[in-house]
Amino acid sequence: MAASTLNPYDLYDIRSMLSEEEVMVQDAVARFTDERVLPIIGDCFDKGVFPLDLIPEMAELGLLGSSLPTEYGCAGMNAVSYGLICQELERGDSGIRSFASVQSSLCMYPIYAYGSEEQRQRWLPQMAAGKVIGCFGLTEPHGGSDPANMKTHAKRDGGDWVINGAKMWITNGNLAHIAIVWAQTEEGIQGFIVEKGTPGFVAQEVHKKMSLRASVTSGLFFDNVRVPDSSRLPNVKGLKGPLGCLTQARYGITWGPIGAAIACLQEATEYSKTRILFNKPIAATQAVQLKLADMARRITLAQLLSLQLGRLKDAGKMQPTQVSLAKWNNVRMALDIAREARDILGGAGITTEYCPIRHALNLESVITYEGTETVHQLVVGRELTGINAF
């Protein structure tokens, strides 16, 4: 009896391990990516613009704050569904996934987890609907891997807080209606919701980027910015606040690059079958088949890693070290595959007519943000040895 043909981009039939709802979510986001993202994203990358008209459509699909409860206008999906959303969006472009990650995990999540009920009711339904966009102000100009060395500070002044400082490399900064800003206080690091237009608060877009060009990146500047105590997130103090948000976002990032890698493998495979050299397609050469097979192997391992991580998250058992291992492995996997796919495409691979160079450039940012590769390696090393080598 002949063996059935495997899906070349799902060799271990991960799809059979998904629930009916998870399959529906993946299919819906895949259609959105195929029909709305892929036709325009090359031009958006070339021009350095974020496709704003996609935001209402993403909201309509329930992709913003997808894991938060329905009582706040969110979809109430599980963690695996959120991961699949990230995978399919990043199959389109890391910038599109970054938008959704920041809105969902770095802005809506802290309001839900650390905010007051009044803050939840005020902001979350509008954010889920895409009517209010957020950004996350943690990283500072002098360095991102040591958030405890934060210079931005907030001081009490009567019933208000006065914020001074600067943040850098902030996704959605110039799109945002609100910023979740982390600042040093006399009581430890605390989070504040700062609204656009507040006197002294300025966002400046970063230009001349060669990565995440279809994404808005900004610097945020705070010059005696006065906010009421009602804008402070009351239910967390210390680094565990922002780090808790980052764990949520990093979880999604373990899935996203799988989509980028699949896009690169698919394009390299199709190209190799039509590119004729020395009277045969390059797909008929051992060198190319070895490269394609290695890509498929690494994608399969990443798929299994993220699926198990998602199941652990849904069971309430996920540990930050597990997220670090998957983020490190999966982003490195995707970056290596994007570069290899670019090589298979030869000269054609340096243009945005094809996706590998765009994904490779984007992944240079993804491997840096939400914890650099080195930081995640050291997190795993600390878990193994019990010794902090930071």
Mean pLDDT: 96
Q: How widely separated are the two ends? A: 56 Å
Rg, please? Answer: 21 Å
What order do the strands of the largest sheet run in, or round the barrel if closed?
2-3-7-6
CATH third-tier fold name of the largest domain: Butyryl-CoA Dehydrogenase, subunit A, domain 3
Number of beta strands? 9
Main pleated-sheet profile? 4 strands, antiparallel
The coarse overall form would be globular
Tally of domains: 3
Q: Specify the helix fraction band.
A: 40-55%
> What's the CATH first level of the largest domain?
Mainly Alpha
What fraction of residues sit in β-strands? 5-15%
What order do the SSEs take from the amino end to the carboxyl end, as H and E? HHHHHEEEEEEEHEEHHHH
Structural class: alpha+beta
How many separate helices?
A: 10
Which terms would index this structure?
single chain, 390 residues, alpha+beta, Butyryl-Coa Dehydrogenase, subunit A, domain 1, Butyryl-CoA Dehydrogenase, subunit A, domain 2, Butyryl-CoA Dehydrogenase, subunit A, domain 3, three-stranded mixed beta sheet, globular
Structure commentary:
The protein is α+β, with helices and mostly antiparallel strands and 390 residues long. It folds into 3 domains: 14-128, Butyryl-Coa Dehydrogenase, subunit A, domain 1 (Orthogonal Bundle), CATH 1.10.540; 134-231, Beta Barrel (Butyryl-CoA Dehydrogenase, subunit A, domain 2); 240-385, Butyryl-CoA Dehydrogenase, subunit A, domain 3. Helices cover 50% and strands 15% of the residues. The strands form 3 sheets. A 4-stranded antiparallel sheet has the order 2-3-7-6, covered by helices on one side. The chain starts with 19 loop residues before the first helix and ends in a 5-residue tail after the last helix. Its EC number is 1.3.8.6.
